[in-house]
Amino acid sequence: MEKQENKGYQITDSIQVGNTAFVIGHSEKLPYPYVVWKKTEAQGYNYGHYKNHHQEAVEDLCRRALKELKVQRNKEMWKMRKEQSENE
Fold it and tell me: At 41, is the secondary structure helix, strand, or coil?
């Protein structure tokens, strides 16, 4: 991953789910050393969850990515069912 930075935080980890990414930022200088953001092309970095410990950030990153994966899977399943019912 190429070096990225946002609001003084160095991006250290990222999970991509479709067009959405969840990233961990780290800074030794800011009050909360870790943050987990949701990142999209249209909105950039948003919805920061600020953490004191790396393990908390990793858990939040995984939880948010899994939730987004389920949302996208449900949308895809709904779309497939709609297409099937239209073809009947």
Answer: coil
Instruction: List the domain boundaries for the chain.
Output: 5-87
H or E stretch covering 79: helix 54-87
Tokens standing for residue 11: 């991006």
Report pLDDT for 10: 98
Collapsing DSSP states into helix, strand and coil, what is residue 13? strand
3-state DSSP: the chain helix, strand, coil percent, rounded to 5? 40, 40, 25
1 pLDDT band, cuts 50/70/90, is low
Residue 56 structure tokens = 């908390």
Amino acid identity of residue 9, one-letter, is: Y
CA distance 31 to 59: 20
pLDDT in tens, 52-83: 999 999 999 999 999 999 999 998 898 888 88
Cα–Cα distance measured from residue 56 to residue 18, given in angstroms and rounded to the nearest whole number: 24
